[in-house]
């Protein structure tokens, strides 16, 4: 892993954590709150690929869980959000807008399914308890589609983003 | 989460101190968290969960963790715990009914099971926070590298932890600047997030520029240069007390697992044995 990838991954994790932990989004007609974390996760996955996408989404969201006091959910969050980042990054690689859309759908589905299975079995919420959480998770990943729009806007104002991922460091150059 | 604007968060959980828990090697604390989580996932018993809850509180008190930090965990997780207890009581009745309301049967088994599962969420969180409240970030990352995480990934985690407060600050600054220029954050759900887009774009571009500079700074320090042996300023070392604590933890966990698997103790939510 070269220096630029290290920096980019760390920064991506921090972006996800901030958007999950400190930006409240009201949920329509309920008075509850969710967060735009999925927007950042989809953005990072689409912009920087499956590996950085997986690490940034998984670790970023798990850190946010710890910071907010939801320590017990952090391991499940790491896996569920990590899968979203991995799938969104993998399916969108070089496949244009259709691939990005498919990545969002597949990643979102994986996140919701993993939370449901994990909460129903390992955490012992039972099917009833996990089903109660289902609408919140669905709404959360639905917001993620705006991450695709965010990517196009950011790329338009900051075209260097294309060179950030997979850039060569001096160690790679000296090796070759 | 109250209000409309961004919420200030304290990203560093560490509570400075010199207690025995602070001085313990972070790897021992990591082992403690792992053992504790395995045990509370294996045991289903209400009395076991209550004892575990008392034990983690004693740990926090002896490490001089301020009561406000414990109240913070209670406040975030108590609603979840209560909801779990309620759902189990309503949906999974078993055995003789204590009371019947219309189609809902309240049974002792379901009540105890629900309470035990609710407490489990709290106990797991308190175990994780016993580790994070008493370990500073540098030692935490160092211990993760020592248990086998590659150095580069440890650096990624350390840098991410360092940049969370920075980016949170820039998010707040940008949203205030946009608000001063007339950006109004109204509505809920999609409408709200679409209105937040200008803030996201500015924040992300700022962060990516920071990442470019950070990458160059790391390169300038020749990270990954071949043939260089890494050294650290403050290394962590196992002392005799750390060996003793690890041994005690492993033995206690093994005993409790044996009691559960071989003798079936703690399988039932309310009965012992």
Summarize this, please?
The complex is a heterodimer of chains A (176) and B (273). Chain A has eight helices and two strands; from the N terminus they run αββααααααα.
Primary descriptors:
heterodimer, A: mainly alpha, 2 strands, globular, B: about 270 residues, mainly alpha, two-stranded antiparallel sheet, 9 helices, about 70% helix, flat
Which whole number gives the mean pLDDT of chain A? 89
Kindly, what is the distance between the CA atoms of the first and last residues of chain A, rounded to a whole number of angstroms?
15 Å
Order of helices and strands of chain A: HEEHHHHHHH
Count of DSSP E strands of chain A? 2
What overall form of chain A do the CA principal axes indicate?
A: globular
Query: Topology as H/E string of chain B?
Result: HHHHEEHHHHH
Number of helices of chain A: 8
Strand order of the largest sheet of chain B: 1-2
Number of strands of chain B: 2
Largest interface (C-beta under 8 Å): A-B, 71 and 81 residues
* CATH fold-level label of chain A: Arp2/3 complex 21 kDa subunit ARPC3
The helical percent of chain B reads 55-70%
Q: Helix segment count of chain B?
A: 9
Widest sheet: strand ordering of chain A:
1-2
Main beta sheet strand tally, sense and closure of chain B: 2 strands, antiparallel
Outline of chain B: flat
* Oligomeric state of this protein: heterodimer
Mean pLDDT of chain B comes to 88
Class of secondary structure makeup of chain A: mainly alpha
Strand content of chain B: under 5%
Structural notes for this entry:
Helices cover 77% and strands 2% of the residues of chain A. Chain A has 176 residues and is mainly α. Chain A has one domain (3-168): Arp2/3 complex 21 kDa subunit ARPC3 (Orthogonal Bundle). A two-stranded antiparallel ribbon of chain A has the order 1-2. In chain A, α1 (3-22) packs across α2 and α2 crosses α6. The radius of gyration of chain A is 17 Å and the shape is globular. Chain B is mainly alpha-helical. Chain B has two domains: 20-143 and 237-263, no CATH class; 150-220, no CATH class. In chain B, 68% of the residues lie in helices and 3% in strands. Chain B is built from nine helices and two strands. Chain B has helices at residues 20-23, 26-42, 46-62, 67-91, 108-133, 137-146, 151-180, 189-220, 240-263, and strands at residues 97-101, 104-107. Chain B has a two-stranded antiparallel ribbon. In chain B, a hairpin with a 2-residue loop joins β1 (97-101) and β2. The longest helix of chain B has 32 residues, at 189-220. The model of chain B has no long low-confidence stretch (mean pLDDT 88). Chains A and B meet through α1, β1, α2, α5 and α6 of A and α4, α5, α7 and α8 of B.
């Amino acid at each position: 892993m070269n220096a630029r990838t290290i920096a980019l991954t760390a920064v991506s994790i921090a972006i996800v954590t901030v958007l999950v932990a400190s930006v409240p989004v009201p949920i329509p007609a309920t008075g509850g709150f969710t967060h735009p974390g999925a927007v950042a996760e989809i953005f990072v996955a689409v912009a920087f690929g499956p590996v950085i996408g997986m690490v940034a989404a998984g670790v970023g969201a798990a850190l946010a869980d710890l910071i907010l006091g939801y320590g017990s959910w952090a391991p499940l969050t790491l896996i569920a959000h990590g899968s979203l980042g991995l799938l969104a990054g993998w399916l969108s690689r070089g496949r244009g807008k259709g691939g990005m859309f498919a990545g969002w759908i597949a990643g979102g589905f994986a996140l919701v399914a993993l939370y449901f299975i994990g909460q129903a079995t390992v955490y012992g919420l039972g099917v009833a308890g996990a089903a109660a959480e289902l609408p919140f998770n669905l709404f959360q990943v639905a917001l993620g589609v705006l991450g695709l729009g965010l990517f196009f806007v950011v790329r338009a104002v900051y075209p260097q983003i294309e060179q950030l991922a997979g850039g060569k460091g001096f160690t790679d150059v000296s090796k070759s | 989460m109250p209000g409309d604007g961004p919420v200030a968060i304290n990203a560093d959980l560490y509570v400075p101190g010199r207690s025995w828990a602070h001085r313990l090697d972070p790897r021992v604390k990591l082992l403690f968290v792992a053992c504790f989580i395995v045990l509370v996932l294996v045991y289903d018993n209400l009395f076991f969960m209550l004892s575990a809850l008392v034990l983690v509180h004693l740990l926090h008190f002896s490490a001089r963790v301020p009561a406000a930090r414990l109240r913070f965990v209670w406040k975030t997780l108590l609603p979840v715990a209560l909801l779990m207890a309620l759902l189990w009581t309503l949906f999974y009745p078993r055995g003789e009914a204590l009371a019947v309301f219309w189609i809902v049967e309240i049974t002792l088994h379901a009540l105890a099971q629900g309470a035990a599962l609710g407490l489990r969420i709290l106990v797991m969180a308190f175990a994780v926070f016993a580790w994070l409240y008493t370990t500073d970030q540098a030692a935490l990352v160092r211990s993760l590298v020592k248990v086998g995480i590659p150095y580069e990934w440890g650096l990624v985690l350390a840098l991410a932890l360092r940049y969370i407060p920075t980016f949170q600050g820039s998010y707040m600054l940008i949203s205030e600047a946009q608000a001063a220029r007339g950006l109004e954050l109204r509505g809920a759900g999609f409408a709200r997030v679409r209105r937040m887009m200008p803030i996201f774009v500015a924040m992300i571009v700022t962060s990516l520029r920071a990442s470019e500079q950070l990458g160059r700074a790391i390169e300038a320090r020749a990270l990954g240069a071949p043939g260089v042996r890494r050294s650290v300023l403050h290394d962590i070392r196992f002392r005799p007390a750390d060996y003793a604590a690890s041994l005690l933890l492993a033995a206690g966990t093994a005993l409790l697992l044996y009691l559960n698997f071989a003798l079936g103790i703690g399988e039932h939510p309310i009965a012992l044995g």
